[in-house]
Amino acid sequence: MALHFLLESSSDATVGDVVSLTGAEAKHAAVVRRLRVGEAVTVGDGAGVWLAGSAEEVSPSQVDVRISQRSEQAAPSPRIVLVQALAKGDRDELAVQAACELGVDEIVPWQASRSVSRWEGPKAAKGRERWTSIVREAAKQAHRAWVPGVSAPVSTAQLAERAATQRVLLLDPTAELRVSELTPDDRDIVLVVGPEGGISDDELRRLTEAGAERVLLGDTVLRTSTAGPAAIAVLSVALGRW
């Protein structure tokens, strides 16, 4: 499989054109991946455009790719959204990385009441930037045409508002309905994963009163870093993605 890289912005390049990778992406291609002139590559813009071609010029500061084929992939619908509670250590980052590789379409940080990690003040912007970087690298590794967006952190009240128009699923080990038993409709699916201590009773009440559904993955209790990706895998089968 050809090496895959990402452009910094959307592209209208077509067959015969040259697109250039610059900055960190060029350095990664030339130094880390050791791309060579003439080698086949694919390039995406993260918004559905997929370009195939070959490397024409390679240096750590700029890589030029001559395009031989262009295609565009429609955005998935309905979308799968992961609302990931902030967690200690790198557990939330592991969840974000795996979710992206498995096909999530949007990631929303959630400041749950039991979250040990707190994104306050400048830390919120830095945390979102960090997750965005993780998502970009995971999407590139997975050869995804669409790079998921990372939204601003939400409160429980803001999360409850989503239940009015989207199908909000609360991953709860005490629920009776299994994720594998769900029948998808045309609404976006919003998976809500709690922190290490789980979703609090008050949060469960507020969200279910707003229309969210409590769902169960299986008989075992998964970590916050694995629950979301596991549910995404199950839903990808139900949606016909896999």
How does this structure look, described?
It is built from six helices and eleven strands. With 242 residues, the chain is of the alpha/beta class. The strands form two sheets. Strands 8-7-6-10-9-11 form a six-stranded parallel sheet, with helices on both faces. Helix 4 packs parallel to helix 5. The chain is elongated.
- Poorly predicted runs are none
Overall structural class, as computed from helix and strand content, comes to alpha/beta
**Cα radius of gyration in angstroms:** 20 Å
Which sequence of strands runs across the widest sheet? 8-7-6-10-9-11
Largest sheet: 6 strands, parallel
Count every helix, treating DSSP H or I runs of 4 or more residues as helices: 6
**Silhouette:** elongated
State which percent range the strand residues make up.
25-35%
Q: How much helix is in the residues? A: 25-40%
Instruction: Determine the N-to-C terminus distance.
Output: 19 Å
Mean pLDDT over the full residue set: 94
Count of extended strands? 11
Q: Which series of helices and strands comes N to C?
A: EEHEEEEHEHEHEEHEH
Descriptors:
30% helix, five-stranded mixed sheet, 242 residues, alpha/beta, single chain, six-stranded parallel sheet, 11 strands, elongated
Short summary:
The chain has 242 residues and is α/β, with parallel strands linked by helices.
